[in-house]
Design goal:
- By secondary structure, the protein is mostly helical.
- Helices cover 85% and strands 0% of the residues.
- Helix 2 packs parallel to helix 6, helix 2 packs across helix 7 and helix 3 runs antiparallel to helix 4.
- The protein is elongated, with a radius of gyration of 23 Å.
Length: 208
């Protein structure tokens, strides 16, 4: 029990640092992209941020909903990505936390800030000084962004639950490509204490 609590605290600290870093990166990149562009291109950037949040929300929920058994059968047939898919399901709590809470929430916050910049650019283009007009534009844009975010995630959740196996396998294949082509391992299998103990005993018994 003590180990699990300690492990949870370490993960919380780590994911908080990652969230801070990603939020800063997303904010800087989105602000740089929106600087000096028209409100139309800015709107497309906002939609892209919403799409990123929806896609990662689907990935996180699929990992939590997927069953591990089908991937063992695929691994026996040496299907690419099946081994990584098993690791994803076994670490579903962390994977979904990263996808849903970190990337999903950060993209939602940044898309809201980006929407404010787009609205400001649109109002400046319209040369609107009427309070009613500026308020109406702000409300409409905020409503559209909120509707697309909530509606997209609602549709994505249904898709993730019904097609969780295929989604997780697709993610596993992507991780498999990273491992084989770029030598980047996302999941590292930890050695158990029992195996370490056996190795130590066998090494100690060699001189006899």
């Amino acid at each position: 029990m003590k180990f699990s609590i300690k492990h949870s605290i370490k993960w919380s600290i780590f994911i908080s640092i990652v969230t801070f870093a990603l939020a800063c990166i997303f904010s800087v990149v989105s602000t740089a992209l929106l600087a000096g562009v028209s409100w139309g291109i800015g709107t497309l950037i906002v939609f892209l941020l919403i799409l990123i949040g929806i896609v990662f929300d689907i990935m996180g929920l699929a990992a939590a909903a997927a069953d591990e058994k089908p991937f063992h059968a695929m691994a026996a047939e040496r299907v690419h990505g099946s081994r990584q898919a098993i690791y994803i399901v076994r670490n579903a709590d962390r994977f979904s936390n990263f996808c849903n809470d970190v990337v999903g929430d950060v993209s939602g916050v940044i898309s809201g800030a980006a929407t404010a910049l787009v609205v400001a650019n649109l109002i400046a283009t319209m040369n609107a000084s009427n309070v009613v007009v500026t308020t109406a534009v702000s409300v409409v844009f905020a409503g559209i962004v909120s509707a697309l975010t909530v509606g997209g995630k609602a549709m994505g959740k249904s898709y993730a639950i019904h097609y969780s196996t295929g989604i997780v396998l697709t993610i596993g294949k992507f991780f498999d490509v990273l491992e084989r082509r770029l030598r980047i391992r996302i999941f590292v299998k930890k050695k158990s204490k029992s195996s370490k103990g056996k190795r130590g005993k066998s090494r100690a018994a060699r001189p006899n």
